[in-house]
From TrEMBL:
Protein name, per record: Protein RecA
Function recorded in the entry: Can catalyze the hydrolysis of ATP in the presence of single-stranded DNA, the ATP-dependent uptake of single-stranded DNA by duplex DNA, and the ATP-dependent hybridization of homologous single-stranded DNAs. It interacts with LexA causing its activation and leading to its autocatalytic cleavage.
RecA family profile domain location: 44-203, 208-281
KW Amino-acid biosynthesis (keyword) present: no
Family assignment from sequence similarity: Belongs to the RecA family.
Subcellular localization: Cytoplasm
InterPro entries membership: AAA+_ATPase, DNA_recomb/repair_RecA, DNA_recomb/repair_RecA_CS, P-loop_NTPase, RecA-like_C, RecA-like_N, RecA_ATP-bd, RecA_C_sf
Keyword field contains Zinc: no
Database matches in Gene3D superfamilies: P-loop containing nucleotide triphosphate hydrolases (3.40.50.300)
Length: 367
């Protein structure tokens, strides 16, 4: 047919594209548009461990990705803050600077210290309003000097208008608009500065839902879209020592994952006052990977017995961090997850030395 568009030659297309690129670079600066050259090296996503081997494996890349937004949500007392504090401790081990924006005003610094957080290197803020919390987060991220920011929690980010208003005022969508605006501003600088930003969120129930889950998270839908990783953490049972409850059995589901296949699950124990039982996970995953042998109740590694019963074997590995590190890295290699960096050398204790003191003048005369 005559009304068909004429085919543009490839040479003219190339000239038009070159002219368009030149105009864009002139207007917005060099590097505004780049060609994704196949020969150019592709940078791996940098990650930080969560402190849980099972969860690192479920995430597919060995931890939480840097330069991205992460959302962790779940019911009350399910382990959300514990998981983020452990991640802070792991980031500090790598020499990173971390900030904790405590919008709930409920951070237990003693517990954080027990989980391995170095409080002297941790930046803590307890903002008065949601706007203040997000402005502080934005300033820290834009500085480029902070490696990780945790906001605890989205539900506690109260807009200024709500604080200044009366208790019964209806302000629909105020927090959702605040979160949407903040994430639009934050996402670019988070990626540019390679900062990991974790939002802890709470669960609410939708009214009148007949089919499907009535659960929803606070703060609107913006965070669901901007988050590269979303983790649903739940308490599934109790760990008892006799009649005393000493911890929780925990399940984490990777609900969304932009850097690896999603919908994987991790099961681990959270012990009160100690956090995730990392050694217990090493044993469980080591047995699955056939790196640790289990015969009856005995655990063995390389033909040598580690302990009878999981508790004894766990204590054995706690006392030997180098052995635990070796087994964990073998498990990670077998599952295709990147290995941990070498442990920092522990300074050896020097033997007691006898110091000869110079005798006083009186002692010398008596001699």
């Amino acid at each position: 047919m005559d009304d068909k568009k004429a085919v543009v030659p490839a040479s003219e297309k190339a000239k038009a594209l070159a002219a368009a690129l030149a105009q864009i670079e002139k207007q917005f600066g060099k590097g505004s548009v780049m060609r994704m050259d196949a020969s150019a090296p592709i940078e791996e996503v940098q990650v930080v461990s969560t402190g849980s081997l099972g969860l690192d494996v479920a995430l597919g890349v060995g931890g939480l990705p840097r330069g991205r937004v992460v959302e962790i949500y779940g019911p009350e007392s399910s382990g959300k803050t514990t998981l983020t504090l452990q991640t802070i401790a792991e980031m500090q081990k790598l020499g990173g600077t971390c900030a904790f924006i405590d919008a709930e005003h409920a951070l237990d610094v003693t517990y954080a210290q027990k989980l391995g957080v170095n409080l002297s290197d941790l930046l803590i803020s307890q903002p008065d309003t949601g706007e203040q919390a997000l402005e502080i987060c934005d300033a820290l991220v834009r500085s480029g000097s902070v490696d990780m920011v945790v906001i605890d929690s989205v539900a506690a980010l109260t807009p200024r208008a709500e604080i200044e208003g009366d208790m019964g005022d209806s302000l629909p969508g105020l927090q959702a608009r605040l979160m949407s605006q903040a994430l639009r501003k934050l996402t670019g600088s988070i990626n540019r500065t390679n900062t990991l930003v974790i939002f802890i969120n709470q669960i609410r129930m939708k009214i009148g839902v007949m089919f499907g889950s009535p659960e929803t998270t606070t703060g609107g839908n913006a965070l669901k879209f901007y988050a590269s990783v979303r983790l649903d953490i739940r308490r599934t049972g109790s760990i008892k020592s006799g009649d005393e409850v000493i911890g929780n059995e925990t399940k984490v589901k990777v609900v969304k994952n932009k850097i690896a296949p999603p919908f994987k699950e991790a099961h681990f124990d959270i012990l009160y006052g100690a956090g995730t039982s990392r050694e217990g996970e090493i044993l469980d995953l080591g047995v699955e990977a056939k790196i640790v042998e289990k015969s009856g109740s005995w655990y063995s590694y390389n033909g040598e017995r580690v302990g009878q019963g999981k508790d004894n074997a766990r204590i054995f590995l706690q006392e030997r961090p180098q052995l635990a590190w070796e087994i964990e890295n073998r498990v990670r290699e077998s599952l295709g997850v990147r290995s941990l960096p070498p442990l920092a050398p522990v300074a050896a204790e020097k033997p007691d030395t006898v110091v000869k003191l110079k005798p006083s003048k009186g002692e010398a005369d008596a001699a």
